Structures are given as structure tokens and as C-alpha cells.
Amino acid sequence: MNIFLVLVKKEIKELLTRQLLISIAAMLLVFYVIGKVVGTQHKASEARNSDVVVLDLDGSALSKSLIGRLSGAGYRVKKTSIPCIDTALAAPEFKDDGLFMLIPAGLQKGLDAGRKGGIGFYSKFTNFSASATTVTASKIRRTITRVNDELSVYVLRKRSPSLDAGFAREPLAALEFVMVGGKLEQVSLGQALASIQSQIFFFPVAMFFIVILAAQMVMTSVASEKENKTLETLLSSPLDRWMLVVSKLSASALIAGALSGAYMLGMRSFMSGITAQAAAGAALPAQAALAKLGLIIAPSGYLLIGLSVLFCILCALSIAFILGVLSDSVKSIQVTIMPLMMLLMLSYILPLFIDINAAPLSVRLLLYAIPFTHAFTAPQNVMLHNNAQVLWGILYQAGVFAVFVTLAGKLFSGELLLTLKSPFKKA
Amino acid sequence: MPTPALSAEKLEKKYGNFTAVSGLDLRIEEGEIFSLVGPNGSGKSTTLKMAATILFPTSGKIEVFGSDTVGEPEKVRKTISYLPEEAGAYKTLTGLEYLDFMASVFLRDRAKAAEAVKYGSELSGLKDKLKEKIGTYSKGMTRKLLLSRAVMIRPRLAILDEPTSGLDIINGYEVRKTIKQLAKDGITFLISSHNMLEIEFLSDRIAIIYKGRILACDTPADLKKRFSTDNLEEVFIKLAQ
């Protein structure tokens, strides 16, 4: 067998331990279970989302009509004869209900007299989970809008019987257009945002995981060889030292790639559970518009993003390789990896909160100097049709990789590998 | 005059301000078992590492079979095999996989590598244990495996740093016997140790090293005679005083 393959095979055997496989399998299982549970819970919440408990103290034709219209609009209205809202909120039969509506006495009379009606909407939290709070907030907004619509139709009909109340209430047929990277399409902003977020939210998390995993692997490989002095044996052998460097980087990249693939599958399962309703996606015409806008990434876009991610991993590996040389033992990796971790955090977190291109020059320079930023922002740039920026980023990453891998090779060619001491080590 | 297996001239190694080896001169003939003897921190391991091309001299030079360790390290590496002190092995590999891996690293010829693995397996005496992962080995078993690895490729010069450290009396004795036998077959040995008894039994010649300098270099018998003592420990004490 080719000596390079022999080295890579040995590295893989060293890195791919049973403990690592078990921990990855456990993580995938956790993702899968959480995704499933959250998805099931979400469906249950959605079912409960149409429930509304109504205390009709008005008992007028209007209030009865309003309740009927709500039922016709898909609400599951639970009428109660409990006269006090406090008692209703605490009633055992409504222990799982989150929305209560109190129609006060005199509502119809007041509206007829031209006074604003005051319907009470009561939200009751049964827990503080993310899904519960989102559902309750959206449900309240939706219900208030619906009730207002019904009442405005009633008022319009009452005051101007000849008027088309539906038209008067909503004379505007809103046509929403979205422009991305110079391309204009008719699609709702909500759909565009949902499409962007579904592709961008998942990506940096997976990227962060891949890079850290790959970096830790190569650092462990170098540090354990140093610690066990197996490196001294290899360095005194006729092996080309560059081959040692490249084989370690290749093995780490291979394993990180395979594991990150598995991780992405788990993450996808997790996300599809969480965004179950979003996964249903937009209607077909909207999908076509989103694709034309570039918000559904094309294969060529994925190729660019993939290249950027590949060079990001290679940069991280070459930097981690040098940090591994600085590590005196496998245990010290936790400390030695910190500089890489900090760079990664900066390039991961900052672009989530700021518009890099609108940031001050110093911040922009700092972020773009970190090779990982280019990979984190690649999907956004591809969606915005800034392919040239992605390509420049890839070139820059390739340059950084070349510099650090040369440095790593130089370290392996000299004696610094054995004599260099970690700056993080206590004197 | 034949080319020596190893020669060092005014060899010096500094780590910052600390001088580990100072003005060391050595000449080791082919087929010889030559030992560097001295306490911990005396410069033995540093000298061995310079011979193994993994450390560079600050000044002076060291040659292996006429090749400079700094100028022609690739040539040197083809003739040597180095066993570091307290070295470990890849714990996730089996003993056999380790020998096979190392044979592939040192010998590109597949047939020669297979032959070396067979020889190394026999030398190790680990038998069926070779099929188990190195992580399950005792310290002594690991050391025997590493020693077998170091000599299975039949290098022209074997550089062994504390070869029997961690071995019990029986295993230590067997290793010493093996080294003697391999030397008869033509392998040159450069060994470091602070075990005077071991060195006396093994070595054709020894150099007593202390604080980076060679205090004396001769056969064990001549050294004892010169210092009128019965053992090398006393020779060292007299030299160090």
C-alpha cells in the first residue's frame, strides 16, 4: 500500500475511537428524539391554538353572531356561563386553555351608539416553553384582528346598509414584491424571510461544529504523538516530513467531513421537527419566485458554499496543527485551542447580529481577516448574488491555508516541534 | 581508516541559556555496542536525539556513517533506528498492526517489510498478545514491542535511549542478550543508560557523561582498572567529584 495511505489509515484508526463514535451516535439520537418530541408537541399546540374560551356577558345578537363567525372561521369556541373571568381562568375544565375572551355587557348597545367596544383578551401561561409563548402571542394577534374585522363589518352595515362592507373594510389588494440582489419577484416578505432563515439558521451551527471537531482532531493527533514520543520515532524515520503533515490533515478532514455529514443529518431531523409547519413550505408559485430571487440555493451556489467550507476547514486544520505542536499533552488542548475558538466565535456570532458591510472599517477588516467569516457568510452572499465576494473569500482562505500549512511543514522539518513550549503553560 | 558508524566533533547543544551538551567528541566503530552513561540531565538523551537527526547541534557536528546529520539527514535516517526514552505506541493499534505500520514507514519494499514484521514478532516474544490492542499491554510488554520495532528493520545503527527501562529482571536480561546477538550480526548500537550494571554487561566501550561533557571513554574493564575500582559506579563517583 502507498505509504501516504498507510499513514492516513493509521491516523484514522487513532482518531476514530469507540468513545468518539459512541458520543456522536448519542448526539444524533438526542437530536432525533428532540426533533420528534418537539414536532409532536408542536402539532398538539397547533391543535390547541384554535381553542378560545368565551364569556359572553352581552348576550346580544351581535355577540352571538361574533361567536358564530369565530366558529365558522375555524375556532373551537368553548362558551362558558361562569360569570366571572377570574373564576373561569382558574376553572379546572379550562386548565389547558390559554386564551379567554370576555365580551362585556352592553357591547352591541355601545357600538350602536358610536362608542368603542372593549372586549377583554386574557392569555394564560401553563408553561414557558418557546413553542407555547410563540403560539400564544400569534394566537392573540390573530384573534384580535378577526374580532375587529367582524365588528367593523357590523358597524359599517349598521351605519351604511348600502355600502359593500367587505370592500370598505379592505379596499386594498396588497401585492407584495421582494428585491434581492437586483432581482425583483412577486412574493411575500414573510415567505422570503422564512426561506432565508430556514437555510441560514442551520448552516452556521453545523459549520461551527465541523470546524471545532476537525481542529480538535488534528490537535489531539499531534499532541498525543508528542506526548507518547511516537512522533520522535516518525521524525527519525526516512519518511518525508511533509507527508506526515499532509496525512494528519487529510485524516482529520476525512473524519470531520464524515462526522459532520452525520451531524447535519441529525440536525436536519431536529430542525424539521422544530419548524414542522415551515417545512411544509410556500406554495409552488412562491417557490418559483423564491428560486428566481436566489433564495433557494441552486447547485452552483452549493458548490461555491462547499468550496468555502472546505477551505475554512483546511484553514482551521492548519492553524490547529500549529496549536497542536504548542500543546504539551492531550489534556492541554482544551487551553491551547482557545485562540482558534475565539476567532471562530467572532466570525460566527458577529455576522448574526451586524451587517458586516455596514460595519466600521476596523470591524470589517477584522472579520474579513478571519478566514472562517467567509464560509459563515457564504450562503448569504450566494443568495444575494455576490458570487464574486464568495470567490475572493475562497482565494483568501486558500492563501491563509497555504501560509499556515507551510508554517506547519517548517515546524515539522525543524527541531522546534520538540523544543517549542506552549505559551499557555505555567512557568 | 574505516568510516566510523558515528563520529561527533566538538558537539554542543544549547537550549536558550542552558548548555545540555558541551564540546563532545565521540567515535563509534561499526558493530560496536557503545554506551553513554551518566545521571539524569547529563546530556545523554540530547546527544542521542542529535544522532537521530531530530535535534540540531548548536555548534560542532555529528556524522553517521560519514553523513552529516544536519546536511544529509535523509541519508542518515535510512541507516538508523531510534528508540526514545519512555516512548509509547499507538494504543488503538494491535501489536502486529504497529509493527506492520512501522515496517512500512522504514522499509518501502513490501517483502522486506513483511520479513521485518515476522522477525519483530518473534523478537518481541509477545505471541498471541500481538493480536491485541497495545492499550491493553503492560509497560514491560510495550517496551519489548518498541525494542523489537527498533531492531526488526536491522538498521546499521540502532540508537536506544534507556532500552530496558520499565522491564523486569528477566525481560531486561533477554533484551540485553538480544542486543549482544544483534551486534554480532553487524548492527552498531549507541545506547544510553544510567544503569551501570547493565552497561557493564552490554557495552564494548562506554563514555561517562556528566553536565554535558565526556569525563572518560574506554572499555568497562580499562575504566575500572584506571580508577582502581570494582564497578563503574565508583568510576563515575570518582570522576564526578
Give a verbal description of the structure:
The complex is a heterodimer of chains A (427) and B (241). Chain A is an alpha/beta fold. Chain A has 2 domains: 3-39 and 182-419, no CATH class; 49-173, abc type-2 transporter like fold. Helices cover 69% and strands 7% of the residues of chain A. Chain B starts with 5 loop residues before the first strand and ends with a helix. Chain B has a 6-stranded mixed sheet, sandwiched between helices. Chain B has 2 domains: 1-78 and 157-163 and 187-241, Rossmann fold (3-Layer(aba) Sandwich), CATH 3.40.50.300; 80-154, no CATH class. Helices cover 39% and strands 25% of the residues of chain B. Chains A and B meet through helix 1 and helix 10 of A and strand 6 and helix 3 of B.
The percent of residues in helical segments of chain B reads: 25-40%
Which homologous superfamily in CATH is the superfamily of the largest domain in chain B? P-loop containing nucleotide triphosphate hydrolases
Count of discrete structural domains of chain B? 2
Give the topology string of chain B: H per helix, E per strand. EEEHEEHEHHHEHEHEEHH
Sheet with the most strands, sense and barrel status of chain A: 4 strands, mixed
Distance between the termini of chain A: 45 Å
Tell me the helix content of chain A.
55-70%
How many independent structural domains of chain A? 2
Largest chain interface and its two residue counts?
A-B, 24 and 32 residues
Strand order of the largest sheet of chain B: 6-7-8-3-9-10
Tally of DSSP β-strands of chain A: 6
CATH topology of the largest domain in chain B: Rossmann fold
Q: Determine the mean pLDDT of chain A.
A: 83
Mean pLDDT of chain B: 91
Number of helices of chain A: 21
SSE string of chain A? HHEHEHEHEHHEEHHHHHHHHHHHHHH
CATH architecture term of the largest domain in chain B: 3-Layer(aba) Sandwich
Query: How many individual helices of chain B?
Result: 9
Shape annotation of chain A? elongated
